[in-house]
Write a structure and sequence with these properties.
alpha/beta, Dna Ligase, domain 1, D-amino Acid Aminotransferase, Chain A, domain 1, 7-stranded antiparallel beta sheet, carbamoyl-phosphate synthase (glutamine-hydrolyzing) activity, amino-acid biosynthesis, metal ion binding, ligase
Length: 1054
């Protein structure tokens, strides 16, 4: 079937900000879709609010709108652009929900737009759990016994009906329809829990429907990624098996591909059932994820659910097999058949109808950030809580499993595995983030496999492999590098045991272990991922390391540059750094270098097989990176773009004679070590907050007298403000030092600059100077982590004198630190009336920062590209963004709804998962649009929480009057209430019951309470500046105009 000629322009809906359950895998999928459609001559109109994505770069789509992902804004854009069709399968649940809204409001019919891949009707069939159950039942497939619930009374009746059916006393699963990442779902152990969960699930479901179904906890869970074309041809790209049983969300489970414990008859039955479901649901073309559960005792198979779109699992399947699912799905939406699409991986010797063959094993492990949410129990359930994931490839399950553990960079897992046997048993009996590491440790202590099986419901096949690893580790602990034979080395490495693990067991330096291993010629081979198990020659150099036999994938010729990625997404280190890595790889390639990407994140664009000349899917540890360097013999390595992970390896890499391109290791140490950095600022004569270095609890009294309170503690070498804290007395400081121990040795305790304005400056430095810099001004004050603060560019209150002073300081520091490439400086500006106007430097990061993508979009200046030129030795021309008269605002997005027991407060430690960006003709317009994009509809808000702690109440009262005119209910702390009452502003005093909100430390420690019904939809204003921003936002007209990113350079409003 030839490509359709009637589809000349297509609107692609993105996924919006990174949230738990919807991460950067949709940037990967969306980027592939944009490029695939552009190749066919289609005009692509992209709508996405996330500035940190590759897909929102001006050159990816024909027209790019970085605007709120709501139906009202989308309708305005679609009426302006008039595309022929709309593609909603690349933007996760957000895009599907937007498609449903556009259909309900008649926009699709009004504009006569065709829905590619899925229609609102087919989305209903798959996302509405009752309809999906009907389709599966009509096909003769097994489903879990369930009841549809639309009210709490329905839930009570469902519980009684299930009790009559013989399920009394059993657990029940609550599953809302049309939610993301299992939001609102849960496991109910009694009727009271069921009613509470159903009430929550009904509130979270967009259609107000929940399915109460029998519990399948302990069953084995599988996922099939199916691709279908218009003619009904289907193929199974990958079968993914969850090592964890049913009852844990698939995004939080350890998974393996291909399935290891599924026999062929079961697989064929599952594959046929998946094809039947996809065809019966009305899905026209593209990728569908279908989930099944199998009872390990009886073999009963049930269909669990389907997702009619690309997903987290489809990104994993694409990277695991080399089959570009999103690209193929985009081409199929234009009318192609599978047999008409050649495989780019095999130089088109095969077509897309060929199901991938895997002669290796892939393991995915989730990455959690429970440490960011104190008070939240680290317990896994049916709703997703992980913030990222890693993927490892090996020739065997054991090799791949141990590589995946290394990829996580999770010290919490190591600490949990060092627990006593009794505590290990407790940790294993509950589904926790560190369960697999604890199981490995328990097997090493002699815990029986049968006991582990009873406690975890993990298949004995996997437990047997973990037992083998534990046995070899135990045996090697009595050896040493000088007594190891080559066969013993090979046995250890084929089990995936790292040099770091052996150095810890033997109590020696890791370099000695590596030297002893290499002296016996034990080094990994390289094998290629090719989709066809080596049957055809492949175009891409997509390789993994293995100690199991010889492998191909030799080093390519030419000047090679190794780029280190950022590893798994986590709070503070996410998609922003992948954005920088992708641009760095493209720039180095344009300069004639062969690029070698090292990363282990399957969700990212950087790990696409054609994003670099060679992709090494490896852990970001010193051992694995050194092996890549020995294999490729590069010109040098680039560390600046991957965040804190590669930066922490700088000194080790330099000591092992790896040339670092750009900023030297000594500079990195001078900026990261607080004591050294304080000395640098002192020598440069740059103002900094009054501070002192603390080495332990004994220094607390001395530091207290020299610094004063309140103070802020900033440890060295930390990511996203880890362990940073505001302290208000000597006792609190001493308790802090005792609690954190060695982790905060050498931390700086500095004066807390209450009321200061915080700014970020992103600079590009070359050997001659600083050709580019850009300033963003924060809305929240100093004391709130920069990643959690809304910010604006250009600055909306700073004068030219302050900006000139900041630039002068940046130039001086870049020369003193010998920075080449990117540098981020955080400033605090104190205005007159505080301590006299002054510019203080808080910290310097000699690397890419998380604001680089936002600044690059707002200024239309590609900072990562300029920085790469500088690191490769080129001199950059001085570039300054032309004034456009437009403001761009970045707002943070949080996941507190996923962690109901964590206190929803902001402070020095970052807690946001993603960000949005919007542009307007004034700061107020841009800010109002950013709030809508982040999910806060200030125009329709009915409840707001206000606090004027630590400053004048006049601006707060001005905002309060405006909000009262908009009929908003205002809740205030006691101090604000008294001030408002005296001025005749009607507000509510925070009650003693209800939902407590702890406000940002920048304005004091005010607390207030509100009725729980208001809590999920409340606007919190805890700062004067935040209230002023809200005031400007409320004054904006309801019909704010969307702007194309391509038009920002000339400020042309279309």
């Amino acid at each position: 079937m030839p490509r359709r000629s009637d589809v000349r322009s297509v609107a692609i809906l993105g996924a919006g900000p990174i949230t738990i359950g919807q991460a950067c895998e949709f940037d990967y999928s969306g980027t592939q879709a944009c490029r695939a459609l552009s190749e066919e001559g289609v005009r692509v109109v992209l709508i996405n609010s996330n500035p940190a994505t590759i897909m929102t770069d001006p050159g990816t789509a024909s027209a790019t709108y970085v605007e709120p992902m709501d139906a009202r804004t989308m309708a305005r854009i679609l009426r302006r652009e008039r595309p022929d069709a709309i593609l909603a399968t690349m933007g996760g649940q957000t895009a599907l929900n937007c498609l449903q809204e556009l259909g309900r409001h008649g926009v699709l019919e009004e504009l006569d737009m065709e829905c590619l891949g899925v229609s609102p009707a087919s989305v209903e069939n798959s996302e509405d759990r009752l309809r999906f159950k009907g389709i599966a039942t009509s096909l003769g497939l097994g489903v879990a016994s369930s009841h549809a619930v639309r009210t709490v009374e329905d839930a009570a009746r469902a519980a009684r009906a299930m009790a009559r059916a013989g399920m009394a006393g059993r657990t029940m699963i609550v599953r809302p329809s049309f939610t993301l990442g299992g939001a609102g779902s849960g496991v109910a152990h009694c009727e009271r829990e069921l009613l509470v969960m159903c009430a929550r699930g009904l509130a979270m479901s967009p259609i107000g429907e929940v399915l109460v179904e029998e519990s399948l906890m302990g069953w084995k869970e599988y996922e099939l990624e199916v691709v279908k074309d218009h003619a009904g041809n289907c193929l199974a790209v990958c079968c993914i098996e969850n090592v964890d049983p049913m009852g844990i969300h698939t995004g939080d489970s350890v998974t393996v591909a291909p399935a290891q414990t599924l026999c062929d008859p079961e697989y064929q039955r599952m594959r046929s059932a998946a094809f039947d479901i996809v065809r019966a649901s009305g899905f026209t073309s593209g990728c569908v994820n279908v989930q099944f559960a199998i009872c390990p005792q009886t073999g009963r198979m049930v269909a669990v659910e389907m997702n009619p779109r690309v997903s987290r699992s489809s990104a994993l399947a694409s990277k695991a097999t080399g089959y570009p699912i999103a690209r193929v799905a985009a081409k199929l939406s234009l009318g192609y058949l599978l047999e008409e699409l050649g495989s780019g991986m095999t130089r088109r010797r095969t077509t897309s109808t060929m199901e991938p063959a895997m002669d290796y094993v892939v393991v995915k492990m989730p990455r959690f950030s429970f440490e960011k949410f104190p008070g939240e129990e680290p317990m896994l359930s049916t709703h997703m809580q992980s913030v990222g994931e890693v993927m490892a490839i090996g020739s065997t399950f054991t090799e791949s499993f141990m590589k995946a553990l290394r990829c996580l960079e999770d010290t919490g897992a190591s600490m949990a595995a060092c627990s006593a046997r009794e505590r290990l048993a407790l940790l294993i009996s509950f589904p926790s983030p560190h369960r697999m590491a604890c199981m490995l440790a328990a097997l090493g202590m002699g815990m029986p496999s049968a006991a582990l099986r009873r406690m975890t419901c993990v298949d004995l096949w996997y437990i047997a492999r973990l037992k083998r690893i534990a046995r070899i580790l135990g045996a090697l602990s009595y050896k040493g590098p000088s007594t190891m034979s080559r066969l013993e080395w090979l046995a250890a490495k084929r089990c995936g045991i790292s040099d770091a693990a052996l150095s810890a067991a033997w109590g020696i330096d890791e370099m000695r272990v590596a030297y002893a291993r290499r002296s016996l010629r034990v080094s990994p081979a390289r094998r290629r991922i090719d989709t066809c198990a080596g049957e055809h020659d492949v175009a891409a150099s997509y390789v993994y390391s293995t100690y199991c036999g010889a492998g191909g994938g030799g080093a390519s010729r030419g000047d090679r540059v190794v780029l280190l990625g950022s590893g798994p997404n986590r709070i503070g280190q996410g998609i922003e750094f992948d954005y920088c890595c992708v641009h760095a790889a493209a720039t180095a390639a344009m300069e004639g270098h062969r690029t070698v990407m090292v990363n282990c994140n399957p969700e990212t664009v950087s790990t696409d097989f054609d994003a670099s000349h060679a992709l090494h899917f490896e852990p970001l540890t010193m051992e694995d990176i050194e092996e890549v360097v020995l294999h490729t013999r590069p010109l040098g390595a680039v560390l600046q773009f991957g965040g804190q992970t590669p930066l922490s390896l700088a000194e080790d890499m330099a000591s092992r004679c790896v040339r670092l391109l750009g900023t030297p290791a000594e500079t990195i140490a001078s900026a990261e070590d607080r004591s050294k950095f304080k000395a640098v600022l002192d020598a440069a004569g740059v103002a900094q907050p009054r501070g002192s270095i603390m080495w332990g609890p004994d220094d607390a009294a001395t530091v207290s007298s020299s610094v004063g309170f309140p103070a802020i503690v900033r440890p060295s070498y930390v990511l996203s403000g880890r362990c940073m804290q505001v302290v208000r007395g000597a006792g609190e400081l001493c308790a802090y030092a005792m609690h954190h121990g060695k982790r905060v040795r050498g931390a700086i305790v500095e004066q807390y600059l209450g009321g200061a304005i915080e700014c970020d400056m992103d600079c590009v430095c070359d050997v001659d100077g600083m050709p580019a810099c850009h300033v963003v001004e924060h809305v929240e004050p100093v004391g709130v982590h920069s990643g959690d603060s809304a910010c604006s560019t250009p600055p909306y209150t700073l004068g030219s004198g302050v900006l000139y002073q900041m630039r002068s300081i940046a130039v001086a520091l870049s020369r003193r630190l010998a920075v080449v490439g990117l540098m981020n400086i955080q400033f605090a500006i104190l205005s007159p009336g505080d301590y006299g106007e002054a510019v203080y430097v808080i910290e310097v990061n000699p690397r890419a920062s998380r604001t680089v993508p936002f600044v690059s979009k707002a200024s239309i200046i590609n900072l990562p590209r300029m920085a790469t030129y500088a690191m490769l030795g080129r001199r950059c021309h001085s570039v300054r963004g032309e004034p456009t008269g437009l403001y761009s605002v970045k707002e943070a997005v949080f996941a507190f709804s996923k962690f109901p027991y964590a206190t929803p407060s902001l402070g020095p430690e970052m807690r946001s998962t993603g960000e949005v960006m919007c542009t307007g003709r004034s700061f107020g317009e841009a800010w109002a649009k950013s709030q809508a994009a982040a999910g806060y509809d200030i125009a329709g808000a009915s409840t707001a929480a206000l606090s004027a702690c630590g400053g004048s109440t006049s601006a707060m009262l001005q905002a309060a009057r405006l909000m009262r005119q908009a009929r908003a209910e205002l809740y205030c702390t006691e101090r604000t209430y008294r001030a408002a009452y005296s001025k005749g502003v009607m507000v509510h005093r925070g009650g003693a019951s209800g939902h407590r909100l702890v406000l940002a430390p920048g304005d004091g420690r005010g607390e207030l309470s509100m009725p729980p019904a208001h809590a999920p939809h409340v606007l919190v204003c805890s700062t004067i500046r935040g209230c002023l921003a809200l005031t400007e936002g409320l004054a904006q007209p309801a019909n704010m105009h969307p702007l194309r990113l391509q038009d920002l350079r000339n400020a042309r409003i279309v």
